[in-house]
Structures are given as structure tokens and as C-alpha cells.
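Re: your question from the hallway

Yes, I did run it. Sequences:
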Amino acid sequence: MNDLDQLVQDAQADFAQAHTPAELENAKARYLGKAGRVTELLKALGKFSPEEKKTRGAQINATKQQVEGALTARRQALAEAELEQQLKAEALDVTLPGRRRGEGAVHPIARTMERIEQIFASMGFDVADGPEIETDWYSFTALNNPENHPARSMQDTFYVDSKDAEGRWLNLRPHTSPMQIRYAQAHACKYAGQPTMPDIRVIAPGRTFRVDSDATHSPMFHQVEGLWVGENVSFKDLKALYLDFIQAFFETTDLKLRFRPSYFPFTEPSAEIDIMFESGPLTGRWLEVSGSGQVHPQVIRNMGLDPERSIGFAFGSGIDRLAMLRYGISDLRLFFDGDLRFLSQFK
Ligand code: PHE
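Structure:
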């Protein structure tokens, strides 16, 4: 083997030893750099005669090309190896199961509200929504519950230490009854001066607030207000309507209703509505589910109606209470703790 073949072989072996681009550049310098072996050979050409220079020069050039060829091949091999490694490192295992989004569900109270809305809608009732921060007037005064009247303390109200733009004191509504006035006002005005009186049928479900907290009371709870005012709406209609509702809600006719005399400033007469199941785990106990009564004439007046011509009833039922009975839950606070172990049972 002549010296030039040997040089090519050395270069190939050297390049093969290089495992990074930097190592390869160092190896390249040893052959093609300023003091590299190929460069030295070319420099040494000067010692040869013109004839020899020609052949020797051509041989060295061929050698140089071979070295350069080996270098390019190694560069490519290194680049490919690097790409392969990168691909391996970033590889996706397409057989891994995907990350699923947790499956949500409607909260049991929201679900109960929807159920109540559906039942009353099917009986021709409108569904209305009202403010949770109320004025003194809507929460009490308009409901025939004047300032300083002891009946105001029937509800342990959260008062807000500020007034609205018109200077009225604010509170977190302790019941949904303000919606009786708000809704009737909004609808009665259309009938002002007309020969027929309005027929108002509405329920207003929503959040209510009282300073109260134990297994069956939460400072935030839910009520559904019901109002039916017309020219000839009686307590008998309330009984029939409420029985229909309760039977539809609990999906059974195996229960009784009881109207127990009570007092509310905004109804006269007033009654608590109790239910008793005649079968199932809750059999034999009267359970209070609602306040109710015939709308007080003063309240009819505050609605913008004439109590000589409009009459009707209202009720206010505890939604959480109804949900507890329907789902057999003994502690109301479970609804609002946000514990997924409890809530996921309602999927
Ligand atoms: N607002 C009353 C309460 O919260 C319930 C009620 C509503 C009573 C409508 C009579 C008529 O206790």
C-alpha cells in the first residue's frame, strides 16, 4: 500500500471514530487543515521535478477528494444518527389511552329546580328570575310587613350596609316573595284601565339567604315562589294545584297534603303545607315543604291591582327540602360542600 492509500485509510478510520460534529471537525483539521497531512503533501510538492509534480500532484488531488468524500459521508451519517435520536426521544406512544375530561353533571339542586320548572310550565305557569340583592321595600314593606313590625324578625335577614341609587336599604332576599310584587307589577301595568283583569301565573325559583346554619338550614338556600292571581282564583285551586305538583314531583299518588294554619304578613289566611308519604321510608311523618296563603289585599294593591277585582294565592316552597326528600338526603350541607364523592352520585 502506498503512502497515499494509507492516508485515505487513516482518514476513514479517524472519521469513523468521531461521534460528534465537533470531533469530526477536529479529525478533518488533521487532514485538510493548514497543517493537515494532505496540505503538507501539497506543500512538499515543491521538491519534485516538474514531471513528477504533475503525476504526484494529480495523485494528491485524488487523495484529497477521497478524504473529502469520506468526510461528507461521515457528516451525513452523524446528522442522520442525530435526527434518529431526536425522533426517538420525542416519540409519541399512540397506543396510550387519551386523557379524558372529567364528565360533568347537573347539580342535584339545579336538577330539582329544572324539574319543578317543567312541572309548573306544563300547568301553564311562567318561570321568572329576580335579584338576590333586594331592597327593603320588595323584601318586606311591599309584602305588608312594615318597618319595625315584629314579623320582620321571622326571617333572620342579612342586611347589606349600603343603599341603592334611590337611597333604599339593601338586603340579601330572605325569601323569593319579593318576586310576587316584581312580576305582578311588570304584568299588571299592561292591564291598567282595561276591562279584564290579568291572569298571573308564575313561579320564581332562586337563591335566598338567612342567618341560619345546621343540618337542615343553610345560610344560602333555595325557594320557589308561586303566584296565581286572577278574577276568581281560590284556595281550592291552590290545594288542587299543589297536590298535582307534589304528586308529579315525587312521581307518586301515595301521599297526602295537609294545610296547617299559620301566619305570614302577606297572606290572609295563611297555611303551612305539609306532606305525608303513605309508603316508603318516610311513611307516617308530616313533613313541612311550603308556606302559602291567599294574597293579602294590601299586597294586591302594591302589585298595582284592585283587590276588589283580583284575588289569588301564593306559596313559597323549600327547594332544598324537596330535593332532600326526593333523594333521601339527611344533611342539607352536603349539597353545598362541593364534595365530588357526593355530587358524582347524581350523574
Ligand atoms: N315567603 C315565605 C317564607 O319564606 C313563604 C310564603 C310564600 C308564604 C308565599 C306564603 C306565601 O317563609
